[in-house]
């Protein structure tokens, strides 16, 4: 992976320079989290950690970088010398990729020298926000597809090459089965899929000739695009003719793709004609600006569709194109003394949760059924407890305090090995996501009006937050 150390905002370097000089022995803990779920959903799928690791492994500043910094004339030579000899010593904890994560829970925490941890803000947000957003959108589309495969077709609509490549990776984490993006398929070991474009049919004298030539070239991979001229009166009859010729030659057709029109009506008519012609196993694939609302509607209408090719609405998360993750200082440490930190805002929902923390998923005892998450200070012992008074972590919640009994707690944040050169496959991550989704209440996974999944804080953490808030409020009077 290329060096991304300069992929940051200018003020990160200006703050880092100040921290290096003014607070040289101070360590810090930052939390990366989000507050609002895209598309009014219940949770986000964590993604991007592997690219975070790769980027941080290559954290360094070249002679050309330093020459550029000197041209800016903003920072002194002592700081530039530190950057010239830069060695990242921060430690990370993160949720494994594929983990469903809820508002205000850290997806990732960074602990280390204050100036170093500050420098990582923009880069980490860029990677994690993007991939988590696309993985979350893919999960929604997979839910709507109800078990039918989704093929990611979005490279031409992505906002640049990196968005296409890593968006594809995230889409598979979230549930897509394959991609048309050859580079992403090669890079991440993803099955590659695709049929043809309308230009293939248009380039030949007639549609039947175009289909025959395709079948001649790809006799065992003949999926024909049937909507260039007229699906029912031209495309489908010509496809059936070629399918019969293929079968006579000892090959079985793959199926057809429809890219326009009333997909429900066309797919129902196509299924009937394919079955009548003796091709019940020929697949019907549809594409063209699909989203979860359209997929849900098609399912309710009984459209006999086998595969979905989804492009722009997936690769850009078009209906909700931003995950507004943030990176906030949670604690500082100097000479062994930890000082929790909090951000206060006129908007109470932006109140942060202070301190060095761990996130736990809570299960009904003896089951795999999760019912809530819990945020606690790392100094607290949670695993092994069966009774606990907790407080809703939502700062605008009315009914905040709860008594929990007969539960099991499992920690979610795990140490990140920044020296590893191995990567977990996207298929393994997808399987991890699906296993964790199976543990969550089904009502929280609805695409419309999902049930709220509680995220609690321990009373110790809640009291700490309240104390800091009171101190800052009093101090501002």
TrEMBL record:
Q: Which reaction does it catalyse?
A: 5-phospho-alpha-D-ribose 1-diphosphate + nicotinate + ATP + H2O = nicotinate beta-D-ribonucleotide + ADP + phosphate + diphosphate
Q: Tell me one GO molecular function of this protein.
A: nicotinamide phosphoribosyltransferase activity
GO biological process terms, semicolon-separated = NAD+ biosynthetic process via the salvage pathway
User: Keywords assigned by UniProt?
Assistant: Glycosyltransferase, Ligase, Phosphoprotein, Pyridine nucleotide biosynthesis, Transferase
One Pfam family for this entry, by name? NAPRTase
Q: What pathway is this protein a component of?
A: Cofactor biosynthesis; NAD(+) biosynthesis; nicotinate D-ribonucleotide from nicotinate: step 1/1
The protein's PTM annotation reads:
Transiently phosphorylated on a His residue during the reaction cycle. Phosphorylation strongly increases the affinity for substrates and increases the rate of nicotinate D-ribonucleotide production. Dephosphorylation regenerates the low-affinity form of the enzyme, leading to product release.
The keyword Glycoprotein is assigned to this record: no
- Domain named Nicotinate phosphoribosyltransferase N-terminal is located at 6-129
Protein's UniProt keywords contain Transferase:
yes
InterPro entries from the UniProt entry: Aldolase_TIM (IPR013785), N/Namide_PRibTrfase (IPR041525), NAPRTase_C (IPR041619), NAPRTase_N (IPR040727), Nic_PRibTrfase-Fam (IPR007229), Nic_PRibTrfase_pncB (IPR006405), Nicotinate_pribotase-like_C (IPR036068)
Q: Which residues form the Nicotinate/nicotinamide phosphoribosyltransferase domain?
A: 150-329
Which superkingdom, per the lineage? Answer: Bacteria
The EC number(s) attached to this protein equal 6.3.4.21
Q: What class of enzyme is it?
A: ligase
List, for all copies, the residue spans of the domain called Nicotinate phosphoribosyltransferase C-terminal: 356-464
- Family membership: Belongs to the NAPRTase family.
Summarizing the function annotation, the protein's role is: Catalyzes the first step in the biosynthesis of NAD from nicotinic acid, the ATP-dependent synthesis of beta-nicotinate D-ribonucleotide from nicotinate and 5-phospho-D-ribose 1-phosphate.
Protein name (record): Nicotinate phosphoribosyltransferase
**Native species of this protein?**
Lactiplantibacillus pentosus (Lactobacillus pentosus)
Organismal lineage: Bacteria, Bacillati, Bacillota, Bacilli, Lactobacillales
